[in-house]
Structure formats: structure tokens, C-alpha cells
Fold this protein.
Amino acid sequence: MSLDVIRQCAQLPNPVSFYFGLELPENFVLPDNILMFSHSWHPGRSQDYTTNRHRLEIPAVPLVYEIGESEQYEVTPGHAIFIKGCQKWRIQKTDPDLLNGYLRLIITFELKDEQQFYLPDNEVCKLTEEGEKILEKLYSSFIEKSAASCSAALFQLLQSLSENQLQALPRSMSVAVRKAVYYINRIPCRDVTLAEIASFTHTSVSTLRRLFKRDIGMSIGVFCLEHKMKVARHSLIETTLSLEEIAGLCGFKSVYSFSHFFTRNEGVSPGRYRQVNKKAE
């Protein structure tokens, strides 16, 4: 590998001067005073936020952010949202999952000079495969408390996001979909038919399917499944309920059928999931 680079460098022109090379942009500074943590927002605590620190959020589930007075943006896994210091923002309550909160990675930092070329212009950016590798490097540096490496990695991550900005359009949710999400998240965790939900929202099944896919980005069937899985995960980790009680809570008549459902969708049995996550606390 190094030999290849040396051979390629042989094609470079000779320098005009041995005292002048590439220079950093004027007033260039790296991110400083970096914080990195995860947080699971709960809709009961919805409110406006403003901070003088720049903020980068990478969600694990679809989220809707309101930036400023009225602009709304959907941010899905694989994307990141950059919120400049002193911008007002909030997470909307109308998102999927009104039960267990919304897990996301949060990175906040300061800049002595905020006019930096590597900061994204648009709020929503794509996290590419290269960006994910940089994010891993940033995490390792933060864990090791290496401020210089952490700052350099965050600079690289922001630059990667700037090169993969999305032309995000304001996002709204129809009344029918709002009612459907409200209904699904507030009824007991049981099997519910599309006809039942459509009746509650005063729409037809076909119309509700179309609107739900357009506004939420997933089918209503997948959303219901995810809702049931979130109830199961939360109950296994945060409560001492028995598997029989959790199975009943999730609408299953037996532990066997619940275990089959959970294992198929999570990849591990509910008992193993509880054991591993309890140890990790």
C-alpha cells in the first residue's frame, strides 16, 4: 500500500518553494468542548429548546423535528440533523412510538468562530458508510478522553455530512394518520384490524394505507408490529413482569406464541434478551 502511494507521489510536480505549502483556511478552528451521549426523548416532555452549543443528532428511529417557528423535518435512521447554536427546536409528538421514547445519539460542541466551511448548510444530512466509520473513530476518541483526536474526528464527520446534505422538505402529517397513531399507541397492545383503525379515523382502509405510507414512511402493519415489539422490549428490561404477564400484555394467549413472535423479530428469545440487557445496565 505505502509503495503504491510513493509511486503515485513520483508524478507530483516539484515544489516552487520549499518553504510554502498547503495552508489552513483563514480563521479555521476545530470543534471544541465536545459532549457525546445518548438520550431517549419521551413525548410527555415535549417543549422548545434553545442552546448556544451546536448540536448534531443521529436517531435510531424515525423522528420529526421542528426547527425555528414552523419548519418540520423527518430524520430517519441513516440520517443526521444539524442544529446550529441558538436555533430553537423541538421534537414533535406526532411521531411513531408514543410509549417508550425515541433513542438518538447527541453530539454537542462549541466553535470560537462559527463561520466554518465544514458546517452543514442544511439541517438534514445523510450518514454514509464513510461517515459511520468516522463516527466510530469519534466514539473511541471520546471514550479514551482524547480531546485532540475527538475534535479532529468530529471535524471529519461534519465535513462528510456537509458533502451529503439532503434537500429536506418540510414534513406534515394528515389528520387521519395523526388519529391512527393516537389510536394504535393508546389501545391495549392487542391485535387490531385495519378496518377498526380506519373506522376510528373516518377513512377507508385503502386510503389509510396510502396516507400512512406517505406520512410515516412505513406500512401501518409494520408500524403496529414495531409498537408491539417496543412494548415487549420495554417490559422485559424495565419491569419485573413474568414472561406470561408480558405475553398477555402484548396480546398473546401463550408464552410459546409470544416467544416465537419475539425471537423471529428480535433474533433472540425474550428470556435471553432480558438477561443480556439486565446485565448491561
